[in-house]
Design brief:
With 467 residues, the protein is an alpha/beta fold. The termini are far apart. The chain has 3 domains: 10-39, no CATH class; 67-274, Rossmann fold (3-Layer(aba) Sandwich); 279-464, Ribosomal Protein S5, domain 2. Helix 5 (187-204) links the parallel strand 7 and strand 8 (207-212). Helix 2 packs across helix 3 and helix 7 crosses helix 8. It is 25% helix and 25% strand. The protein is built from 11 helices and 22 strands.
């Protein structure tokens, strides 16, 4: 008689659903570590049970308690789409030392100052350490409650005792549940703890703000499902050598995802910057070669940033191409376009391109300013006083249109710029100039036309390159 084959356990990835016949430490599909677990036996079909509230027509569902309330920090309100929504779960992620705790302590203090009870639970510091920072930043208010806990049961107990309208967890990786397997910060622990906190926040109509760590690649640590569970995902960014900090929304169920908030982090706390444009410009009395001003869009906010370039003869067979705040692959493409369509050969020169104030200019509209700064540095000729450039450069040397051109030009005019070169909206307008709010705007068709308009003709470029 044939024997029945022994059934082997089946394993699957909790992140992407990939299945395998044996356990492995790393998922073969999404490459996540520690997410492969054994499938549980199929359960019987669920039966109908009691409901928490009867279904009703959507027009009869009350929305009065779900309106956004200001958190007291205007720049964060801008990113969130108006403020904090009761019952919302917000995840704030960022690198160590960028200022996440300082920002949330300021938000908690401003919320408490408006009479809304706030509970700040820290698992990374002692209560005394947080109190010292609050003393320094002026965040002592009667409605701000503080506790240091790492156990989920104790956290839920504090929520039951304080009954806050806003809850801050700093951070989710330090809180663990005793009845859940895994170490604090592990995939299973983070997922279960976050689910319990979000469920409590929804039931009690509490605004929940969770601090999350990031990996060395900049991704949020923990299971990917964490980003799906929350309503808002914010990234807190900033260079260690700069006081400027930016908050970006990458997910927002209550507002736009293309907004950015700017802050100034100092020893006395964190302050919102409502007009950050001047931070990325180097004001001089006279123009110098190798500089050009770009106008980028950070979300819906136009911002001016200065691009600086330096071109020097190289003694090496492999000239250097160094960038700071500019994508290096984008620079390589621009140099190739300059050589092919303008005749500026820099194969025996080192090229250095940087931005002022630690700004990161990743938008395609910065191609034209980078190209003009390089040509200006190579020829030793300044572009002129108060000139801004906007435009994406194609591989055939054309200057392509960008979005929100009118908004960018208005910002440049507000900052005192008197000339701008931009992509032509229509072929018929190529090469023409017009005056907009006291600023002369020249429409361009290609990169060669831009050099001619600014006095950096191709003939001079070829002569400089020794052709």
């Amino acid at each position: 008689m044939a024997t029945k084959a022994k059934t082997r356990p089946d394993y699957h990835c909790t992140e992407c659903g990939w299945t395998t016949a044996k356990w492995v430490g790393r998922c073969g599909e999404c490459q996540a570590w520690g997410t492969v677990v054994e499938k549980s036996a199929p359960k019987s079909r669920a039966l109908a049970g009691p409901v928490t509230a009867p279904a009703r027509p959507i027009g009869e569902v009350p929305i009065e308690d779900s309106h956004a309330r200001t958190c007291g920090v205007p720049e964060l309100d801008r990113v969130l789409g108006g403020g904090l929504v009761p019952g919302a779960a917000i995840l704030l992620a960022g690198e160590p030392g960028v200022g996440k705790s300082t920002l949330l302590l300021e938000v908690a203090a401003q919320t408490a100052r408006r009479g809304r009870r706030t509970l700040y639970l820290t698992g990374e510091e002692s209560a005394a350490q947080v109190r010292m920072r609050a003393d320094r930043t002026g965040g002592i208010f009667d409605e701000l409650y503080l506790a240091a806990e790492t156990d989920l049961g104790a956290v839920l107990g504090h929520i039951e005792a304080v009954r806050p309208s806003m809850l801050v967890i700093d951070s989710i990786q330090t809180v663990s549940a005793a009845d859940i397997d895994g170490v604090p910060g592990g995939v299973t622990q983070v997922k279960e703890v976050a689910a319990a906190l979000i469920r409590t926040a929804k039931l009690r109509n509490i605004t929940l703000v969770i601090v999350g760590h990031v990996t060395k690649d900049g991704a949020i640590a923990g299971p990917r499902v964490l980003e799906h569970l929350v309503d808002v995902v914010l990234h807190f960014e900033g260079e260690r050598t700069s006081r400027l900090r930016m908050v970006r929304a990458v997910k927002n169920r209550f507002g736009p995802v293309d907004e950015v908030g700017c802050f100034d982090l100092s020893a006395s706390g964190i302050v919102a910057i409502t007009d950050p444009t001047g931070l990325f410009l180097d004001m001089r009395d006279e123009p110098v070669p190798g500089t050009c001003v770009a106008v980028t869009m950070e979300g819906r906010r136009p911002m001016l940033g200065e691009v600086q370039a330096l071109v020097t003869p190289s003694a090496s067979d492999r000239p250097r191409r160094a960038t700071s705040g500019i994508d290096s692959s984008r620079l390589a493409m621009i140099l190739a376009v300059l050589q092919q369509h303008v005749g500026l050969r820099l194969s025996n020169h080192d090229v250095f391109v940087s931005t002022v104030g630690g700004a990161r200019l990743t938008e395609a509209s910065t191609d034209l300013p980078v190209a003009l700064a390089i040509v200006s540095a190579a020829m030793g000729r300044p572009l002129g006083r108060r000139v801004a450039a906007i435009g994406e450069i194609g591989l055939s040397g054309e200057v392509r249109r960008v979005r929100d051109l009118g908004v960018r030009l208005n910002e440049a005019s507000r900052m005192g710029f008197r000339a701008a070169v931009v992509p032509a909206e229509e072929v018929a307008r190529s090469g023409s100039s017009r005056v907009l709010d006291g600023m002369r705007v020249t429409d361009l068709r290609d990169l060669g036309q831009a050099l001619t308009v600014l006095g950096l003709e191709m003939g001079s470029a070829r002569a400089w390159a020794g052709q």
